[in-house]
Design goal:
- The protein has 155 residues and is α+β, with helices and mostly antiparallel strands.
- The chain contains four helices and four strands, in the order ββαββααα.
Length: 155
């Protein structure tokens, strides 16, 4: 195999190299299939035209930048449920006076408090849950007193 000149990435003609040096530059990725080579005799061609030069060489690594996808901001899970539990807990502390209103308010507040505990506003969910428990207990006590008074005719 003859000695070669090669054209670098900047279009500059580089020194005379032998076959071993040529294979080394191919392995390092400096000479690619599209690199222009010239023999000492003045014959020009692409490196890809030399048989067997790229047979044992792995393709050079090419960096593919990651795709960045922009999406709408995500609201933290459970935040609305915690706020709902807190509000229903406050309402439940007042609504126990009329069990017809106090029972559904506190039960829904309990459910929201439990679901809200898995979110970012855990403390708010716990506070709403505790107030709903208190409101539910007061509702049941008021309901029991009302049923007793109604059953005994003292109402």
């Amino acid at each position: 195999m003859p000695n070669f000149y090669y054209t670098d990435a900047y279009g500059q003609k580089q020194g005379l190299i032998n076959e071993l040096q040529l294979k080394e530059l191919v392995a390092r990725g400096i000479i690619t299939r599209h690199t222009l080579l010239e023999t000492e005799g003045g014959h020009k061609g692409l490196a890809d035209q030399i048989p067997g030069l790229f047979d044992s060489v792995l393709p050079p690594f090419t960096f593919v930048p990651p795709v960045v996808r922009h999406s709408a901001p995500v609201h933290p899970v459970g935040e609305g449920k915690a706020i709902t539990a807190l509000i229903l807990g406050i309402i439940g502390l007042i609504a126990w006076i009329i069990p017809l209103f106090g029972l559904p308010v506190t039960v829904i507040g309990l459910i929201m408090g439990i679901l809200g505990m898995f979110g970012t506003k855990r403390g708010m969910a716990i506070a709403g849950f505790v107030m709903c428990i208190i409101g539910l207990m007061l509702t049941f006590i008021n309901m029991a007193i009302g049923l007793y008074l109604g059953a005994t005719g003292q109402f």
